[in-house]
Design goal:
The chain is an alpha/beta fold. The protein contains 27 helices and 26 strands. Helix 2 runs antiparallel to helix 12 and helix 10 crosses helix 12. The protein starts with a strand and ends with a helix.
Length: 717
C-alpha cells in the first residue's frame, strides 16, 4: 500500500485521500493544519498509550505470581484484597460526587429504551439500525415467535387478529381509556384539544389526556394518533383502505412505536477491520450517517430499491402547533480500545498508530458535519463509547485523547462525550473512580457479560480451573457486578443525565423468550439495554411502557449496596472432579462457538453475524464470544482438566460440524476448514486462540485474529 509522508507520519494513501477529500470539506478545517496538529497530538499520546499497556502486563504478572505463591494456602480474602491494593489494582475510593455532563441529548438523559449495536462496516445494517427509531408493533409480533402459532406463506387472518388483540391489551396498559377498553373503540376525533374515542356513538376519553400529543390528518378524521407513555411515543395509524385497517373495528392499520432510542455504531467487536482499506470503509459509512447521505441498494423479494436515512416525523399538536419528532435513533460511535495498533498510519519511530487514538480523531472529525444539520445530536455533542479500559488511569487517558481531539478540531471542550464499557475487572472494582476521571463528559456505563467474564478468567488464570461457562451466570461475582454497576451509576447522579446500560439479547429468533426475560433489565434499573435487531428493539420497547425506569432507579437508591468483596470472589472450581463426558461437552460447546465465528471473521471479514450454535440456535456473535470461550478452554488446558490432544480432537470434530452448518447456506463462498486443516488459516486462527490463549494480553483475541486476517487477505490479493 502506498504511503504519504506528512509531518513525521506515513499515512496510507486511501486514508489520506478520504480525510482530505471527503471528511474535511464542509468543516471549515484546513487540511494542512489538521495533519500538523494531528501529528503533534498523536506523537504525544502514543507513548502514554504504550506505558499504560505495559502497566497492564506488569500488574497481571504480579497477580499471576501471587496466585502461584498462595496456591497451596487456604484462600484469605483480606490478604488477597490488600495485595490488590498494594499493586495498584484496587485504588482508594474518594469522596462522593455527581457527574456534571452538560448538553446531553434527551435520548441519553431522559428516555429509557432499547439500544441497538450495529457493525459500522455494513451500510445496510447501519441504515436499518439508524432507522429503527420507529417500528411496527404489528409486524414485530406477527413475524416472530413473540406470539404462538405459525405464520404460513399467505396472510394468516387468525394470527392477525391475535396480534391486534395483543396490541389492544398493550394500549389498555400504556394509555388507558376511562370506562372503556381499546378493543371497543371504533372511531377517533379531536375536540377542544382532547382525544375523543367513540364506542356506540358514546364519547370516551383517555384517563390522562396529557398522553395525547398530536395527530396527522383532520381533527374529525385523523390519519394517525400520537400518544406518549414513559417518554416513549406511540403512533396509531388509521387507514380504512388498507388490508388490516379495512377489517379493524376502528380502521387501525398499524401501531408504530418508538423502538431503538439510541444505536451504537460499532468500530470494535462486531467488525473485522485490520488495515487502511477496512478502516476507510468504516469511517466512510460513519461520515455518511453524520452527513445524512448514506444509502445503499437493497434487494428484497426480487425487487431492488435504495435505502436511505429516514426523515423526521411531523404531526399537528392538539392546539394546532407543529410537532417534529426524531425519525432515527441517536447514534453513538464505539471506538476500539487502547490495545491495538493499525498499519494505516505509522509514526516517526515507524511504529503503528494506536488504533483507538486514530478512531477518536476521525470519528469526531466526521461528526462535525452533524454540527450543522443537527439530525443526530441536537446539542452538538459527539458520543463515543470506549471499550476495554482497565482502571481509572486508562479512563483518564481517554479523557486526554478527547481533549486533544477537541483542541485539534477547534470545538468546545467536553463536546465529545464518553461511554464507559464496564467490561474489565480492574474497571469494575474501581468504577466510581473511573467515572470521576470523566465526570464532565460521561454519558454511559454498561455491563458486558462476555468480555467481563473473559477478563475475570484471564486475571485469575493461575488461581485454578474455572467453573463451567453456564455456571458463570449464577456466580456470586457476576450478579454482584451487575448490581454494583447500577448502584455506582445512581450514586454518581446518572439518573436523568446518563445511561446505565445492560447487555445483549443474543438470540434474534427467540423473541418469546426475550419478551419473558429481558424486562429484567429495566427492572434492574437500566435505562437502556442492548438488542440484536430492529424487530427486537420494537418488542423490547414494550417493556419500558410497563415500567417507569426512572421511578425504579429512585427506589433502588435506597437498597443495600452491592459489596466489593463479592465481586472479587474468583469463579474457580473447588473440586473439579467432572466426568469425561461433561468435560467433552463443554469443550465442544466452546470450540463450536469459536470456530463458527472465526471462520467468517478470517475468511470473509465478517465481524458480526448470526452464527448457529452446537444446537443450531442462531446467536448474534461478536469478538467477545471468542474471548470467554477461548479463555475457558485455555484455562482448562493449562490446569490439566483436558489434554492438548483431546482439545485438538474436539477442534477438528467441531470444525466438521461448522463446515456442515455453513456449507448448506453459503455454498458459493464458504471454504471448508476440514478439507485441509494444515492449510486452513481460519482453523489455525481458532486453534491459536486456545493453545496460545494464556499468553494473550488480557485474554484478548484481536492480536491473533488481526495477524491471521492479514495473512488471509495477502493470500487473496
Amino acid at each position: 500500500m502506498k504511503k504519504i509522508n506528512v509531518n513525521n507520519l506515513k499515512i496510507d494513501e486511501q486514508l489520506f485521500k478520504f480525510v482530505n477529500e471527503e471528511a474535511i470539506p464542509g468543516t471549515n478545517i484546513n487540511a494542512d493544519n489538521f495533519w500538523l496538529e494531528f501529528s503533534k497530538a498523536v506523537h504525544e499520546l502514543a507513548p502514554v498509550n504504550k506505558k499504560l499497556l505495559q502497566t497492564r502486563d506488569e500488574i497481571q504478572k504480579k497477580i499471576d505470581e501471587w496466585h502461584l505463591k498462595n496456591k497451596s494456602i487456604d484462600f484469605d480474602k483480606d490478604k488477597y484484597f490488600n495485595f490488590l491494593k498494594s499493586v495498584g489494582y484496587v485504588v482508594d475510593e474518594k469522596e462522593d460526587f455527581k457527574i456534571t455532563t452538560s448538553n446531553v441529548d434527551k435520548e441519553i438523559a431522559n428516555i429509557a429504551g432499547p439500544q441497538l449495536v450495529v457493525p459500522v462496516d455494513n451500510a445496510r445494517y447501519a441504515l436499518n439500525a439508524a432507522n429503527a427509531r420507529w417500528g411496527s408493533l404489528y409486524d414485530a409480533l406477527y413475524g416472530t415467535d413473540a406470539i404462538p402459532g405459525n405464520r404460513g406463506k399467505e396472510y394468516n387472518e387468525k394470527r392477525g387478529y391475535t396480534v391486534i388483540n395483543y396490541v389492544r391489551d398493550f394500549l389498555n396498559e400504556a394509555v388507558p381509556v376511562s370506562k372503556a377498553k381499546w378493543h371497543e373503540i371504533t372511531k377517533f376525533k379531536i375536540e377542544d384539544n382532547k382525544l375523543v374515542l367513540f364506542f356506540n356513538n358514546q364519547k370516551y376519553f383517555l384517563i390522562n389526556n396529557d398522553q395525547f400529543i398530536g395527530f396527522q390528518g383532520e381533527k374529525n378524521n385523523p390519519k394517525s394518533i400520537l400518544l406518549k407513555n414513559n417518554n416513549l411515543h406511540i403512533d396509531i395509524v388509521i387507514d380504512p383502505s388498507s388490508k388490516i385497517g379495512k377489517m379493524d373495528s376502528a380502521n387501525i392499520s398499524d401501531v408504530i412505536i418508538e423502538s431503538a432510542i439510541s444505536t451504537i455504531v460499532d468500530n470494535e467487536d462486531s467488525v473485522a477491520a485490520v488495515d487502511a482499506k477496512d478502516k476507510v470503509k468504516c469511517y466512510r459509512n460513519w461520515l455518511g450517517l453524520m452527513k445524512g447521505t448514506l444509502q445503499t441498494e437493497v434487494k428484497k423479494d426480487g425487487k431492488k430499491f435504495i435505502r436511505k436515512l429516514n426523515p423526521d416525523r411531523e404531526y399537528m399538536g392538539p392546539n394546532g402547533s407543529k410537532i417534529f419528532l426524531h425519525g432515527r435513533a441517536l447514534l453513538l460511535n464505539r471506538n476500539v480500545g487502547h490495545l491495538m495498533t493499525n498499519p494505516a498510519i505509522t509514526l516517526n519511530d515507524n511504529s503503528e498508530i494506536p488504533e483507538g487514538i486514530m478512531d477518536a480523531f476521525f470519528s469526531a472529525l466526521c461528526a462535525l458535519h452533524d454540527f450543522k444539520n443537527k439530525k443526530n445530536s441536537r446539542t452538538n455533542s459527539v458520543y463515543i463509547v470506549k471499550p476495554k479500559m482497565h482502571g481509572p488511569d486508562e479512563v483518564e487517558f481517554t479523557n486526554h485523547i478527547f481533549e486533544s481531539v477537541e483542541k485539534v478540531l477547534g470545538i468546545k471542550k467536553y463536546s465529545i462525550k464518553v461511554g464507559i464499557m464496564d467490561e474489565e475487572r480492574r474497571t469494575t472494582v474501581n468504577l466510581k473512580e473511573c467515572i470521576r476521571k470523566v465526570k464532565e463528559r460521561v454519558v454511559f456505563i454498561n455491563t458486558g457479560f462476555l468480555d467481563r467474564t473473559g477478563d475475570e478468567m484471564h486475571t485469575s488464570f493461575e488461581a485454578g480451573p474455572m467453573i463451567f461457562k453456564g455456571e458463570m451466570k449464577k456466580s456470586t461475582w457476576l450478579n454482584t457486578y451487575e448490581d454494583w454497576n447500577v448502584d455506582i451509576g445512581l450514586s454518581c447522579g446518572f439518573s436523568g443525565k446518563a445511561q446505565i446500560g445492560k447487555g445483549m439479547w443474543a438470540m434474534p429468533d427467540r423473541m418469546a423468550d426475550m419478551m419473558e426475560q429481558k424486562i429484567n433489565h429495566p427492572k434492574s434499573g437500566a435505562n437502556c439495554a442492548w438488542v440484536p435487531s430492529p424487530t427486537a428493539a420494537t418488542l423490547h420497547a414494550t417493556h419500558y411502557h410497563k415500567l417507569d425506569v426512572f421511578k425504579k432507579q429512585s427506589e433502588l437508591k435506597s437498597r443495600k449496596k452491592a459489596q466489593l468483596e463479592n465481586i472479587l470472589k474468583i469463579p474457580k472450581a473447588d473440586r473439579p472432579n467432572w466426568s469425561i463426558d461433561d468435560i467433552n461437552k463443554e469443550l465442544e460447546n466452546n470450540a463450536q462457538g469459536i470456530l463458527g465465528y472465526v471462520v467468517r471473521w478470517i475468511d470473509q471479514g465478517v465481524g458480526c453475524s448470526k452464527v448457529p450454535d452446537i444446537n443450531n440456535v442462531g446467536l448474534m456473535e461478536d469478538r467477545a464470544t471468542l474471548r470467554i470461550s477461548s479463555q475457558h478452554m485455555a484455562n482448562w488446558l493449562y490446569h490439566g482438566v483436558c489434554t492438548k490432544d483431546q482439545v485438538m480432537e474436539v477442534m477438528k470434530k467441531m470444525a466438521r460440524i461448522v463446515d456442515e452448518q455453513n456449507d448448506s447456506s453459503e455454498k458459493s463462498s464458504y471454504k471448508k476448514m476440514s478439507d485441509d486443516f494444515e492449510n486452513s488459516i481460519a482453523f489455525k486462527a481458532a486453534c491459536d486462540l486456545v493453545f496460545k490463549g494464556k499468553d494473550q494480553p488480557s485474554g484478548y483475541t484481536e492480536p491473533l485474529l488481526h495477524e491471521r486476517r492479514l495473512e488471509k487477505k495477502s493470500n487473496i490479493n
